[in-house]
Amino acid sequence: MKIEHVALYVNNLEAARDFFIDYLGGRSNDGYHNRTTDFRSFFISFDDGARLEIMSKPEMTDAEKSVNRTGYAHVAFSVGSKERVDELTAKLKADGFSVISGPRTTGDGYYESCIVAIEGNQIEITV
Prior knowledge:
Blueprint: E1 6-9, H1 13-22, E2 27-28, E3 32-34, E4 39-45, E5 51-56, E6 74-78, H2 82-94, E7 98-105, E8 111-117, E9 121-126
Parallel strand pairs: 1-5, 6-9
Antiparallel strand pairs: 2-4, 3-4, 4-5, 7-8, 8-9
């Protein structure tokens, strides 16, 4: 069994798509639009076969996303090396994203950083 995809609702669909393409090397499909409900989505595909569905629809509730909460905490992206973690974290920070941890080696041995991106959602960057 494998996870087929993870889905994320956003308000600004195009900005979210561009983030995953520009910073994490994703490839987007042409998108989907249900004209009856105004639901829209893109599937972002990554080199290893993982996929992320980003979705938007009118009148969504945009609840506060505190760091310490229940539910899905973050999506982690492996970039292949400590150097790449450092480089991408520095680029994201320079581009105005909030780095909330790292880069660092965690107690369980992962080298990672965590940023807040995409409308307050966390993205982990790891080896």
